[in-house]
Write a structure and sequence with these properties.
This is Cyclin-like f-box protein. This protein is 26% helix and 18% strand. It has a single domain (2-24, 34-345), classed as Rossmann fold (3-Layer(aba) Sandwich). The chain has helices at 13-17, 36-41, 110-114, 153-167, 186-199, 224-228, 243-262, 267-273, 292-301, 303-307, and strands spanning 2-6, 46-49, 55-63, 66-74, 99-104, 124-129, 179-184, 207-211, 232-236, 274-277, 324-325. It is globular.
Length: 348
């Protein structure tokens, strides 16, 4: 069912990291009829250097019949010898003390190319996965963006689960009991709407960071007590969020709070595990009130302080802490909703 396609190691970091500047947020190149997925495929895979000096391996695996391209950022010695990474020492399937922070990008794939979680933080190796769809949309494998609709969310979530469980151990050495998740916009919709209810019980005791997007569960919740009672969930948004998300994020907050209450957690316990903030006065994902890419990077850089026991103070967000309990704060106060036309159907 699973097979690693090929680990073609091109030493072309500049080409890989130059990709975002050559694409707009829609993932459409100028003067070409290629789909965003085809444009991404034209960019070489290979090895490059992360911002913290660790090694990035960019490769592809076939999972459940679909090709999943992904990047892993780790110290060279943690890569398995089968990857041919210089300095690789780990045996395939061997474990280590390092955890993972697995990111699902937003619609169009910008955060896959930027790889905002690439630096090793809090003992977590960075992983980012490219959506297996023609328009680089998580949860929607065909057609143009359709907003909150994610008809392939269950299949994509299973593919992510299987990549982590069956492919990544052949690539890098990590602790399978220490796996966190990050979702950006459309990726956050797929994580919260599908992956979390169906699969998070297999990754208990860690957490999920949902940036600028969230859905209430769209599938049955599997073993709620197995994950909701000990998994951190943080919802990070902005005042001037997209209109559709101004509705879906509060709905998701209420849904996961109710799941926690349903397994017996009290308000104080829920507030420790589930937190929310939409203090920034920026637009969609503009957490620094300056831009989409820089805003996402700000939150990614503060992952430890938000998700791993920190105080939630984020320099650049004017709040004593972003770790406000969801209890009593479900009804987020957004700016006056404006008509946005196509922007509301493209959740980058």
């Amino acid at each position: 069912m699973l097979s690693i396609r090929s680990l073609l190691l091109f030493l072309s970091a500049a080409a890989v990291h130059g990709a975002p500047q050559q694409r707009n947020r829609n993932g459409n190149g100028r003067g070409t009829a290629q789909t965003p997925q085809q444009q991404a495929s034209a960019l070489p895979e290979g090895i490059s250097r992360a911002t913290d000096g660790s090694t990035i391996l960019d490769t592809t695996a076939t999972v459940n019949g679909v090709d999943l391209r992904f990047k892993v950022s780790a110290p060279a010695n943690l890569f398995t010898t089968s990857t041919n990474v210089t300095g690789a020492r780990a045996r395939p399937g061997a474990t280590s003390n390092a955890g993972l922070n697995v990111l699902l990008h937003g619609d169009g794939g910008q955060s896959f190319f930027d790889f905002p979680n690439q630096a090793v933080q809090g003992g977590l190796l960075g992983v980012v996965i490219l959506a297996p769809s023609e328009n680089l949309l998580w949860g929607q494998r065909a057609g143009p963006p359709s907003g909150l609709s994610r008809d392939d969310g269950a299949a994509d979530s299973l593919a992510v689960r299987d990549l982590i469980r069956e492919v990544l151990p052949q690539i890098v050495s990590f602790d399978p009991s220490n796996i966190f998740f990050t979702g950006v916009s459309g990726g956050a919709l797929t994580l919260s709407g599908f992956f979390m209810p169906a699969h998070l019980a297999e990754f208990p005791g860690t957490g999920v960071l949902l940036m600028c997007g969230a859905l209430a569960p769209q599938v049955d919740v599997v073993d709620a007590e197995g994950f909701i009672a000990n998994s951190k969930i943080h919802f990070q948004s902005t005042k001037d969020e997209l209109v559709s998300l101004q509705q879906s994020i509060p709905e998701a907050i209420v849904a996961f709070e109710n799941i926690a209450a349903g397994v017996g957690l009290n308000a104080a316990q829920i507030g420790q595990l589930q937190t929310v903030d939409n203090t920034p006065n920026g637009g969609h994902c503009e957490f620094d009130e300056l831009g989409f890419v820089s805003g996402i990077q700000l939150i990614a850089d503060n992952f430890v302080n938000i998700m791993q026991g920190g105080d939630g103070v984020v320099q650049g967000i004017d709040a004593p802490t972003v770790l406000t309990s969801v209890v009593g704060n479900e009804n987020l106060q957004f700016a006056v909703a404006r008509r946005r036309g196509v922007e509301d159907s493209l959740l980058i």
